[in-house]
Amino acid sequence: MTSSGAEVMLVRETAASGVRLRDQRSLERIRRGAYVARVPPLGPARDRRRLARARICAVHAQLRLEHWFSHESAAVLWGCDVVGLTGLVHVVQETRPHARGGDPVVRHYGRLLDEHRAEVDGFPVTSLARTVVDCAGSLPADRGLVVADSALRRGLDPTELADVVRSRAGTRGVARARLVLDAADGRAESPGGTILRWALVAGGLPVPEPQVEVRTRGGLFRLDLGWPSAQVGMEFDGFVTYSGAFGSTAPEVVFAEKQRQDAIEDEGWRVLRVTWGDLRDTDALVRRVRRALTGRRR
Q1: Which of 186, 218, 245 is a domain's end point?
Q2: SUPFAM superfamilies, from UniProt (predicted)?
Q3: Residues 257 and 291 in one domain
Q4: Where is pLDDT greater, at 59 or 297?
Q5: Is residue 35 part of a domain?
Q6: Domain housing 129
Q7: 31 pLDDT tier (thresholds 50, 70, 90)
Q8: 211: Cβ–Cβ under 8 A, 6 or more apart, which residues?
Q9: Which end of the chain, N or C, is more open, meaning fewer C-beta atoms within 10 Å of its C-beta?
Q10: What CATH number corresponds to the domain at position 204?
Q11: How large a percentage of the chain has pLDDT more than 70?
């Protein structure tokens, strides 16, 4: 059986053929009774996502009662950005099974409205809007915002989110979901930029605008975040999305980066660069940005 290119092998389906999965060093155990072929590393984030989808596939094959994948699992199936994926698989079920202890399946019990049900790649899932609301209400706020931003970027109608929030009034996590969804912005293009934006706002700074366009002598550039009135911009992880006259082939990257920086600053902007390491001390980061904003307003 397959799930987005991952061949999942179940012990119960191979035992009769005499295949002993545990003897195969080329296989990786993803949950009880399920294995997937080992592949060369693709990078931490892509590896976690590949294994998450494989676990979803295995759980779908092994669960006997009706279920819908939800929360982070549904977000993965919908193609949303998810930060901090774990080995857990989330499902909504209306009937409580006799689950064995230690099973890494998080079951959320309750009736799922018809309009909150969907199907993606043959898997039963919560609707995209319900998925976003569930993630916004259960994950740390910045990680929930990553899911929400990416869903809006994919075309989710904000009114659908409002409808789900209303239908979930009084349930656990809905108050937090409202707070997170109020900050959601589909213009955000990366999880890092979203997490940075949340850290700045949570630190008491004015809400920055995502993907700020700056027209320069070298072309049109877009900064990850910015305050146009103060002409202060931010690049997450030193990356600028741009289009214009400067080259973009590998040998020219370092030189082009300096050209872009100079071109933006020639227009009167101050650009602050931020890395994942800076997010480990958000207090220091907020102070740094506040000084920049205050200095530009004098």
Answers
A1: 186
A2: Restriction endonuclease-like
A3: yes
A4: 59
A5: no
A6: 43-186
A7: confident
A8: 187, 188, 189, 222, 223, 224, 241
A9: C
A10: 3.40.960.10
A11: 82
Angle in degrees, 0-180, between the axes of helices 128-138 and 174-182, rounded to the nearest 10: 100
Within-domain flag for 24: no
Overall number of domains in the chain: 2
Strand, helix or coil for residue 289? helix
The confidence band for 245, taking pLDDT boundaries of 50, 70 and 90, is very low
Q: What is the mean pLDDT of residues 90-113?
A: 84
**Crossing angle for the helix pair 141-153 and 174-182, to the nearest 10 degrees:** 60
Q: Tell me the pLDDT band of 253, cut-offs 50, 70 and 90.
A: low
Tell me the three state secondary structure of residue 233: strand
Residues 202 and 147 in one domain: no
The average pLDDT across 251-260 equals: 72
Expressed in percent and rounded to 5, the helix, strand and coil fractions of the chain are 45, 20, 35
In the 8-state DSSP scheme, what is residue 65? S
CA 227 and chain centroid, separation: 24
Asked whether residue 69 carries a pLDDT value surpassing 90, the answer given is yes
Predicted TM-score (pTM) of this structure = 0.85
Distance CA 235, CA 223 (A): 6
Q: Are residues 222 and 126 in the same domain?
A: no
Judged by DSSP in three states, 226 sits in: strand
pLDDT in tens, 161-177: 999 999 999 999 999 99
Contact (CB, 8 A) for 127 and 118 = yes
The Cβ of residue 204 has, within 10 Å, a number of other Cβ atoms equal to 8
